[in-house]
From TrEMBL:
It comes from the Eukaryota. SUPFAM superfamilies: 2-methylcitrate dehydratase PrpD (SSF103378). PANTHER family: 2-METHYLCITRATE DEHYDRATASE (PTHR16943:SF8), 2-METHYLCITRATE DEHYDRATASE-RELATED (PTHR16943). It comes from Mortierella isabellina. Residues 11-252 form the MmgE/PrpD N-terminal domain. This is Uncharacterized protein. The lineage of its organism: Eukaryota, Fungi, Fungi incertae sedis, Mucoromycota, Mucoromycotina.
Amino acid sequence: MAKTSDVTKPLCSWIENLKWDDIPDHVKERCKYLMLDGLTCAIVASHLPWSETAVESVLKMEAPTGNCHIIGWKNRKTGPLPAALLNAAFIQGFEIDDYHGLAALHINAIVLPALLSLVSHQKHANQTVSGQDLVLAMITGCEVAPRVGMALHGGDILTRGWHSGTVFGHPASAAACSKLLKLDKDQIEDAFGIACTQACGLMSAQFESSVKRMQHGFAARNGLFSSLMAQDRYKGISQVFDREYGGYLSVFALGAKPAIPSKILEGLSNTWQVMNFNIKPYACQACIHATIDCIKKLQVEHTLKSNEIQKITLEMGGPAFHHGAWPAVRPMTVMGAQMNNAYIAAAQIVDGEVTLKTFSSEKLDRDELWELIPKITTLHWKEVDMHEDPFDKLHTRLTVDLVSGEKLTTEVIRPTGVKSPLTGEEIINKFMSLTNDLITTQEQKDIVQFMINLDRVEDASEIFKLLNTNAASPIA
């Protein structure tokens, strides 16, 4: 049983022993707002074309009836595993979900759908889950995911082509679900061993596929599956984070920097990673947010008309460069547009904003955009990679050369949502703004009120009465 570290068992013990009273009040409060943002994303994307295709296709394979709700689909239910998969695909469905700047993952898409499935699953078995237990389980997942990610150097895994959040997400979902099921440390270790052997995700999914929307859902579903199997004492890989041959950390570190297993335990019950999840203000990948902010800074003092621009140069760090600097090719899919630096920059210049409507079919193929996009070059700014603070690795510099000969330059070190994280009030405003006209005003108010008071709710399954609605599409 060759192994190189000893972090798996201590982590399992920490999860088993974590109590509600161990967690600071501000962490619990932040977690509730984070979960509200997850519901925002799920409602917004629940009836986008690729989401509807996913629902109809998955329900052809799975039981069309079950106990677990599909968010935004009135009276549509299925089993716990497909429900977790679909609801996760909604949360990741339009690139407006949370992200962790240190570990490059989207926690709501990984953990929240799995837990919601468990809430319904347990209710059907006459076991009521309290709101407090739901928040505690969510915090557990939030603490495990980034620590696993940081043990593998966070966003560096993107440069090797792995979809980092999907890789890091499997153990996070397993941890959260195990906590909600109140598993003991041995069962939790089995859940990790079952989940981690399923971990994968290719970043080439970001170009034209729909499957990128679903990959965090693989982690949500598989972690849920793993914890339910472990509940019945199905044996998983022991010490899966510690094994030298075929272990989780050793395999995903192959050909790269050596893993740092100690990161998994570092700061547990001291530094709360819940506080390091950022809420996106823009519907595109997080590394491009600084690009938008750079352009917005210039637009305050300059008109930046596309026909007056000779060329634009963007400089950014390695993970951002590899993630979003690939050549934009016309015609572009919604997914490609949301992940591409040049498209987003052009849209911000032409429209003066990046909103959900930026990715509607009539806007994706505009001549004005595609005349500007070839003028935009993105370079790897290697000095940014040397920043000690990982959040500063989002540092972006923009230079605009105008036809007149004037040169405009600006920089953003930390973009909106990182420099100053969105407050609880701003998260509520995001929910109200993005779900406006998608659900009723009363439904909006009821969902916000329920989530704000979640830790005082006796039966968390009551949320499904509010989510049992037919949401509209934001780009219809």
